[in-house]
Amino acid sequence: MPEVQRFRKKAPEIEAIRFDGTNHNEINAFTNGQFEAAEPPAWLGDPRFVATVYNQRYRIQIPVRVGMWIARDTDGFYPIRAEKIADEYEVVGEQGAGGTA
């Protein structure tokens, strides 16, 4: 009978920049024009969502709050909550341009 084994999820390496509510131009450059301010009324009626980022894999706009990180990997761009970055990722190498660490 096989033994029970434990596994740890390996997070893929990503690049990310934190949205502070004022750095629209930097994030728009990072996402190659896939980031934009949300039009009033706020996304889905929630005023905390003030922008969106386009995800190429799923071909959808994903809502973004101030303080979220905009990540880039092989699937494209997507937002990540700051708590998830702190819990599941660690800085790799030196901090890149635009505060991407």
Topology of helices and strands:
Blueprint: E1 15-18, H1 24-30, E2 35-37, E3 49-55, E4 60-65, E5 69-73, E6 76-80, H2 82-88
Antiparallel strand pairs: 1-5, 2-3, 3-4, 5-6
Query: Largest sheet, order of strands side by side?
Result: 1-5-6
Give the total of domains.
1
Order of helices and strands: EHEEEEEH
Distance from first to last alpha carbon: 45 Å
Which secondary-structure class do the elements indicate? alpha+beta
Please estimate the helix content: 10-25%
| Total DSSP helices | 2
Average pLDDT reading:
85
Radius of gyration: 16 Å
Largest sheet: 3 strands, antiparallel
Q: What does this protein structure show overall?
A:
There is one protein chain. This protein starts with 14 loop residues before the first strand and ends in a 13-residue tail after the last helix. The protein has one domain. By secondary structure, the chain is of the alpha+beta class.
List its salient traits.
30% strand, elongated, alpha+beta, 101 residues, 3-stranded antiparallel beta sheet, disordered C terminus
Summarize this, please?
With 101 residues, the chain is an alpha+beta fold.
